[in-house]
Amino acid sequence: MTAIKEVVNRFGKKEALLLQVILAVQDADPQNHLSEEAVNEISREMNISRSRVYSTASFYSEISLKPRGIHIIRICTNAPCENANKASILAAIKQELGIKIGQTTADGFFSLESVNCLGACYMSPAIKIDDAVYGDLTPEAAVAIIRNLRKEYQDEQNA
Ligand code: FES
């Protein structure tokens, strides 16, 4: 049984569950995205048109149709974070990674995205890396988090 078939069996074939299926398939993808093959297989397994799968995937900013890094950094661009000096956090992250919003580092480790609000306005400026939210950030703290993730990964690889 393919991984996608397994996901569909776990959630069920109802169209109302399409978003959950897409998110689970994306989560299991090493490049954090929904490939064309995955769209085709979801469509086949759930008996839903490819265009319906594509339109659902395109509607949500959390879902990507192009390959992304192992870690997704999301920077909030709403007013509370903007007013709390989000620009300096973004500049520091861009400089550290050498990429702009919407891009992935050459080593495929980080992707940088913007988001409207992380629901963490009380600790602006905030970023989210994968499922973890970091708030009350300084540029130095943001860079330290990124370097730490890279170091953890390298340590794991060398273990
Ligand atoms: S405005 Fe940035 S987390 Fe809500």
From TrEMBL:
The record ties this protein, via SUPFAM superfamilies, to:
Thioredoxin-like
Q: Which Gene3D superfamilies match?
A: Glutaredoxin, NADH-quinone oxidoreductase subunit E
Query: Mind telling me which Pfam families this protein's record contains?
Result: 2Fe-2S_thioredx
Query: InterPro entries of this UniProt entry?
Result: NADP_DH_HndA-like, NuoE-like, NuoE_dom, NuoE_N, Thioredoxin-like_sf
Q: Which UniProt keywords apply?
A: 2Fe-2S, Iron, Iron-sulfur, Metal-binding
- Tell me which cofactor or cofactors this protein depends on: [2Fe-2S] cluster
Tree of life domain: Bacteria
**Protein family (similarity comment):** Belongs to the complex I 24 kDa subunit family.
Record's protein name: Iron hydrogenase
Organism of derivation:
Dehalobacter restrictus (strain DSM 9455 / PER-K23)
